[in-house]
Amino acid sequence: MSDTEFMSTDASEELSQQAQVVPDKEEIVQELIDEDGDLVEETTQITRKTVKRSMKITETSSTTKTTTISTPAKLYGKDLSEYDEVDVDALLAQLSPEEINILAKEVDPDDSFLPPNERCSYECEKEPTGPLDRKKLIEHINKQALETPDLPENEPYVKGTVRGKKWLPPARSEKDKEVEEGIAIDMGEEYEQALTSATQEEIIDLAAILGFHSMMNQDQYHASLLNKGQPIGLGWDGITKSQQQKVYPMDPPNNTDIEDSIKRVKDDDPKLIELNFNNIKNISDEKLIQLFDALPDNEHLEVLSLTNVGLTDKTALLLAQAIEKSKTLRVLNVETNFISPPTIVALVRSLLKARTVEEFRASNQRSSVLGNKIEMEITELVEKNSSLLRLGLHLEFNDARHRVAAHLQRNIDRIRKDLELRLQFRFFNNLHRKSAKIQ
Question: What are phi and psi of 23, to 5 degrees?
Fold first, then answer.
């Protein structure tokens, strides 16, 4: 339903007979609501015509009023607002079970908490044959796929019959043929005779020397560079074959007697210089505590390896206390255990008091990343240590890595210079004694 009213006014003033008309239109749209609550669109069009040179001005204005009534949405001939007061539970109570099943098949509830069998409209009327057996189900599906015949072809395949349009390569121009023609090079009788009488392996060697590595495979190229001789039978179309992987024997198990080794450490056995408990996973904490309690009184043990023995923070802290009192320990390896970053810092701090440990390894722990704070603490402790020569730790930050590497190199250089001075002193001392005896 729409009502349109037109109102127009014309005003003109003529000052000359000759004129040039330049139209100018302007449209204004406003949305209003009338007394009945209907949406009304009011459009105002103003057209101005300006006459140049003749000083004739004509002004025309028109107003268009449009009233639009939107029709409300309806369902089964009724407005949607009328269904707000309907009792849905009462309607469902009036339906029979068959009608409820039909209604359930047409409705797909958008509820992820419902199981799929309740959301799906498909219902299998067959009785269950038993619990789900995935292997038998896959075998049944494969069997059905093999027994189901293929769809018949409309036109059976006939060997040698070409169907449709056969592809033909485009005709080549004369310029392309001339470019592909070989270029004749006169190399002289000596080179021509040498190349004619050369074998294929010698030609491949020559190509490798000249750098034509794309003309041969990897084995031929490296054989030419290393002067090993070309593999026989490969030729220009040879294919590099993979080499069989070398099988290395498994490392024998560590059969070190734990109790006997701990007893020898307690007794300070002079023959026990190196103790290796690597990969022995059944060492109890009590045994490790006994070992660490005996380390301070031992004066002969120099190398202690505790890789992959299940070392924890509790026992590692006892090891740090034992290192502080150790007098002869030079190498300590505690890799592949369950030591936390703060405990690693405690171990590195204990090396400052010992001043005998030259090599310390503690990588591959439970926490693969130490963190910036821990790495900076380790770096500061290492820079204070003048006896440490090797450190086995994975440092992530470049600053820590460079500072640790530079300090360890300075320690190595200082020890090397001290050793050279000692050797020179001994040499000149012995030379002086010999000269004194001769005199």
Answer: -75, 150
The two tokens of residue 344 are 């690693």
What does the block give as tokens for 184?
Answer: 């004749």
DSSP character string of 338-375: ---HHHHHHHHHHHHHH----EEE--S-S-S---HHHH
The CA distances from residue 258 to 111, 282, 337, in Å, are: 63, 10, 18
Give the SS3 label for residue 420.
helix
Output the CA torsion sign for 234, 235, 236, 237: negative
pLDDT in tens, 66-95: 444 456 677 677 787 777 778 888 888 888
Q: Residue 145: is its pLDDT beyond 70?
A: yes
Stretch (H or E) spanning 57: strand 57-68
3-state secondary structure of 46: strand
Could you give the C-alpha distances from 12 to 6, 56, 58, in angstroms and in order?
20, 7, 5
Q: SS3 of 67, please?
A: strand
Partner residues linked to 409 by β-bridges:
none
Determine phi and psi for 359, rounding to 5 degrees: -140, 130
Q: What type of residue sits at position 272?
A: L
Element (H, E) at 236: none
Pairing state of beta strands 39-52 and 390-392?
unpaired
106 CB neighbour count, 10 Å cutoff: 7
pLDDT average, residue stretch 156-179:
82
Q: Is the pTM of this model over 0.70?
A: no
Helix, strand, coil: what percent of the chain each, to 5? 40, 15, 45
**The residue count for the chain:** 439
What does the pLDDT look like over 245-265, one tens digit per residue? Answer: 788 888 788 989 999 999 999
Biggest CA pair distance of the chain: 147
CB atoms within 10 A of CB 292: 22
